[in-house]
Design goal:
19 helices, Rossmann fold, seven-stranded parallel β-sheet
């Protein structure tokens, strides 16, 4: 199947070709025909699977059949973070480059004046974070009475961040007769309840997200004591193959602390988290994308919306609390058919999380045992488990890829 088979307008097909897309991804094949037909959608899809194009392309196509001159908001996209909002806005503009449709974005952390002026000039497609949108609605600065299609992007993250109450307030003030598209990396019980409340006879799309991620990414883990993680990270960053590295930490304080350590050791880096101003976050991301900085340190929430095609490595400096977060993290690399690499630094306290991750993705992660700062306790604890995983052998940084190809097998669940 190619994009022509999806019956998209020629103006959109030209934009798709300009972006270098060859054929639709699984989520695009599934979702686009139903969205073109006006159906509500409940889709489970990770970032990196092409989900933005899955809803943006058909929504643009549907708008081409209506009044393109009144410049009233007809498509509303709600996202959990500023970075994701900007990314979605940029994608809509790329896909609609051959149309007269106007797409804009509003989010908090910056002065609202320019956003209000843009709304006054007229917008067809609005991408927004819930807090700022609700604020402007209360000021009567934004009119949503003409919304035809609503998209909730990364709904599970909005739930985690406590935005669902604001989202429901916003939805109560847009037309009941509309198309609603709900995209979420995971579908927990709360999201199921939300979908039941908002969607009408929806088409449910669920991709095998974990297998899509792990199949294209080389994964490895280093067992290392917590005190030596920074030293090992610095050593790894000396390797020329680590060209662009997104480093994940759990907390804002931890992100700032690690960034300072890297800077003191001559590693130019940026850092993004919830306490950073919008200008600081945009600057950090710009420096990273341009190659000025080799490393970007980020918390999970702040990293939502980071879409960098040629990201060579993701490093889990601290293991995530949930297996699905791991999948989401490493999904940042290995995009657009390129090789992806994910490295985890795991101390003995985090080993239980590692086991849960392997069970979730139904795959073992290659242990790199021979390095400068091994944590012997972590390597030798539960020898039966480790023997089952690597057959009693240690693997060095140099030969782990060969091991990975020869010996990786699925765990019994």
């Amino acid at each position: 199947m190619n994009f022509k088979d999806l019956k998209l307008a020629n103006s959109i097909l030209k934009a798709v070709e300009l972006e270098g897309y060859k054929e639709p991804s699984p989520i695009q094949k599934e979702a686009i025909p139903h969205i073109l037909n006006g159906k509500d959608i409940l889709a489970s899809a990770q970032t990196g699977t092409g989900k933005t194009a899955a809803f943006a392309l058909p929504l643009i196509n549907n708008l081409l059949n209506g009044d393109k001159h009144d410049k009233k908001i007809k498509v509303l996209v709600l996202t959990p973070t500023r970075e994701l909002a900007l990314q979605v806005r940029d994608n809509f503009r790329k896909y609609g480059i051959n149309t007269n449709l106007k797409c804009s974005v509003i989010f908090g952390g910056v002065n609202q004046r320019s956003q209000v002026e843009t709304l006054k000039r007229g917008v067809d497609i609005l991408v927004a974070t819930p807090g700022r949108l609700l604020d402007l609605m209360n000021q009567r600065r934004v009119d949503l009475r003409n919304v035809q299609s609503l998209v909730l992007d990364e709904a599970d993250t909005m739930l985690d961040m406590g935005f669902i109450h604001d989202v429901k307030k916003i939805i109560s003030r847009i037309p009941v007769e509309r198309q609603t598209l709900l995209f979420s990396a995971t579908i927990p019980t709360e999201i199921k309840h939300l979908a039941k409340e908002l969607l009408k006879d929806p088409i449910t799309i669920k991709l095998n997200n974990e297998s899509l991620t792990v199949d294209k990414i080389n994964q490895s883990v280093y067992f290392v004591d917590k005190i030596n993680k920074a030293k090992l990270l610095l050593e790894l960053l000396e390797c020329n193959t680590l060209k662009s590295v997104l480093v994940f930490v759990r907390t804002k304080h931890g992100a700032d602390k690690l960034s300072e350590v890297l800077e003191k050791n001559g590693v130019k880096n940026g850092v993004i988290h919830g306490n950073k101003s919008q200008n600081a976050r945009i600057s950090a991301l710009k420096n990273f994308k341009s190659g000025r900085h080799k490393v970007l340190v980020a918390t999970d929430i702040a990293a939502r919306g980071i879409d960098i095609i040629e990201l060579s490595h993701v490093i889990n400096y601290e293991m995530p609390e949930k297996a699905e977060t791991y999948v989401h993290r490493i999904g940042r690399t290995g995009r657009a058919g390129l090789d992806g690499n994910a490295i985890s630094l795991c101390n003995v306290e985090e080993k239980k999380v590692l086991r849960q991750i392997e069970i979730s993705i139904k795959q073992t992660i290659a242990i790199i045992a021979e390095h400068s700062y091994p944590a012997q306790q972590a390597i030798t604890t539960n020898s039966h488990y480790n023997n089952r995983r690597n057959k009693g052998r240690n693997y060095s940084h140099k030969n782990y890829k060969n091991y990975y190809k020869r010996n990786v097998s699925k765990l019994a669940t």
